[in-house]
Every structure is written in structure tokens, then in C-alpha cells.
Amino acid sequence: MTQNKLINLCNITKSYGDTLVLDDLNLYIRENEFLTLLGPSGCGKTTTLRIIGGFENPDRGNVIFEGKDITKLPPNERQLNTVFQKYALFNHMTIAENIAFGLKIKKKSKAYIQDKIKYALKLVNLDGYENRMPNSLSGGQQQRIAIARAIVNEPKVLLLDEPLGALDLKLRQDMQYELIRLKNELGITFIYVTHDQEEALTMSDTIVVMNQGYIQQIGTPEDIYNEPQNAFVADFIGESNIIAATMVEDRLVNILGTNFPCVDTGFGRNKPVDVVIRPEDIDLVEPEEDIITGVVTSLIFKGVHYEMEVLANGHEWLVHSTDLSPVGSKVGIKVDPFDIQIMNKPESEDEQATEIVE
User: Fold this and answer.
1) Which residue of 147, 167, 234, 343 pairs with 171 in a disulfide if CB–CB is 3.0 to 4.6 A?
2) At a CB cut-off of 8 Å and minimum separation 6, what does 81 contact?
């Protein structure tokens, strides 16, 4: 079933003083989608979220919601609710009063509000917490209350601005799965901002990778990880070996003076390209089985795998493997043709990726 386009950002440009934060950004968000805006600090992701929510006005461009232009609508008139990293709970109010705050402003009946409080607390697995005070709760519990307060207003879209950033690692991982469950149970659109690649890969239906006010790539987590469109995306999403190379011809690339079979076509003959090879896609074999030979120069145990650096053909290759090769050992490097990703060299550091995934 095709999802309807719920939000359309058209030619959004935003500056703060002389600093251009968003440059002619175009993006649409589907109904019932978990879409993540991912990128480093200053890339424009939070500004994009704030423009969707009505907390910022674009210098140019339009925000279209269900076919209507809402660019100039204030936040309280949009069918959106926002959950911030700082949960913004009212410490002088009980949990029930916090959750009911927006409903009271809308002048809902007492019976309606009580039903909604019970429903929301059950949804976030905090039954019976109505009379507790926020400062008696853990960080994860406070985050759940902030989400409960947002969802009782029945928004069509939930905006989440780095909501797990203040939590410790284990709690953050638990909340990732909670958010996936909530999204599936509520059937609403989630727009999530983070700089954490693992969060984005774990939770998202669609990831929008941003850098310097531009969209670099849009795709599923699998697309973004396995088929990065440029070196920035490859380097930002997980660890990568990114190596300057030459496309000899279709399905053959020269990396550091050695020809490797690959599956890519259409790059021309003897053209400079960038090659991306993920560390887990490199096989360390006996030297006689190799394409190229190197020496292990570094070894770190990471729990689920060993992280090694191998000096071969003058380049330090990053390798992840469950098999140990000691420092100083001679090894062969082997890469399956399907695991070699070829990319055009960008003309500039912040070259914009314009292809939108349908």
C-alpha cells in the first residue's frame, strides 16, 4: 500500500545573520512514517524540525501539510506535538496534571481527560504513576511522560528533537525499542532528529542525511549503510575504508595499484572515483589466497569482533573480524565484488545529493 505524502517542505531556506543554515531544502514525509533527520551539529536538522513545528519561520519556501500551506501557522494550530531533549515537565504538577495540561487548555471534559491519562500511561508502560511527581522519576520515565503528554493530544505527527540524548546507553537502547513500539501502536508519523547513527539505523523507516544545510542522501537504513551516495554519507554512517581509486572499466576498479573485480558499471574508463569498503566486508586470508598482502599493525578487542588495522599497498585498512590475526602477522586482503561500493568524486565538500527516494 502506497503511503500518502503528509508533509512537503518546498524550497526551504533559512539563515541566522550571515550563516546559511538551510539552502533550498526540499523534502516530503509520508503518512505513518518514522523519518529521521541525521547529521552532525550545525547541519540544519533541528532547524528543519523547528520549521515543521512552527517554532521558526523560513526565509523562503513553504511548509505544506495535507495539501494546505501552514508556513505561517503558529505551533498550537498545527496537528503536531514536539518532544524535546529537555523533557520540559512541570515539576510542581503531578504526572496526571502534566499529561492533562494540553487537554485542559482545549477545554476537554474531566471524564475525557481521565480516560486519556489512563490510556497514555498504559501506552508508555507507566500505569499507576498518576500521582507521582516528575522529580521522583528516572530520566527514562520522565521521557515516557513527555511522550505521553504529547500523544494525548492525538497529533498526526510527533516531532522528537534528540529525545534520548540525556539518557545513559542501556536506557537509550531500551527507549529506541519503546519508540518503535509506540509508533506502530499509534499509527502516526514520527519525525526524529539525532546525530547518533545507531539510533537512526535502529528505528527509522527513512533516514535523511544532512550536512551544511544540504540533504546528502535519503533512503532506508539498508540503502544508507550499504549504498552511500558520497564519501560524507559513507564516513558518517558507520566506519568505512574510503579510498581514492580509478575505474578501469565496467566491473573493474584499480585500488592502490591493484585491480579488483566489482559489480558497478557506467562510470566510464580510467575515471577517478572513490571506493567505499566496510570493515566487516574485508576477509583476512592466507597471503597466498589474497589479491593484496599486508601486515597487521593494530589490534583491539571490541567484544563482538576484533578491530584491526592492516598496512597494505601503503594504506591502513580498517578490518572487523571475529577471527584474530596478531599484530605483526602477514595476511591477505580479499573483498567480494558486491562489497565494493563505487562513488563519483564530489566536486565540492558539501556537494548536494538531489535524488529523492520514492
Assistant:
1) 167
2) 102, 150, 151, 153, 155, 157, 158, 159
Q: Which residue has the cell 527513512?
A: 206
Strand order of the β-sheet with 341-344 is 258-261, 252-255, 241-249, 271-277, 341-344
List beta partners, residue 273.
Answer: 245, 344
Please tell me the distance from the alpha carbon of residue 110 to that of residue 112, in angstroms, as a whole number.
Answer: 5
Distances (CA, A) of 226 to 4, 84, 237, 319: 27, 31, 10, 16
What distance in Å separates the CA atoms of residue 189 and residue 89, rounded to the nearest whole number?
Answer: 23
Cell of 94: 503531578
Q: Please, which contacts does 306-311 make with residues 24 or more away whose CB atoms are closer than 8 Å?
A: 307/279, 308/284, 310/284
Which 8-state DSSP code applies to residue 262?
-
The dihedral through the CA atoms of 308, 309, 311, 313 has a sign that is: positive
Strand blocks (E) in the chain: 5-16, 19-30, 34-38, 60-65, 68-69, 80-84, 157-161, 189-194, 206-211, 214-219, 241-249, 252-255, 258-261, 271-277, 282-285, 292-301, 306-312, 315-321, 330-335, 341-344
- pLDDT digit of tens for each residue in the chain (358 aa)? 456 899 999 999 999 999 999 999 999 999 999 999 999 999 999 999 999 999 999 999 999 999 999 999 999 899 998 887 676 788 999 999 999 998 898 889 999 999 999 999 998 889 999 999 999 998 888 888 988 888 888 899 999 998 887 778 887 888 888 889 889 988 999 999 999 999 999 999 999 999 999 999 999 999 999 999 898 999 999 899 999 999 999 999 999 999 999 999 999 999 999 999 999 999 999 988 768 999 999 999 999 999 999 999 999 999 999 999 999 999 999 999 999 999 988 665 544 444 333 3
Q: Where are the alpha helices (DSSP H) in 152-265?
A: 169-186, 197-203, 221-226, 231-236
Q: In sequence order, what are the beta bridge partners of 296?
A: 310
Domains, the chain, ranges and CATH? 5-226 (3.40.50.300), 240-344 (2.40.50.140)
Angle of helix 95-105 relative to helix 139-151, nearest 10 degrees? 20
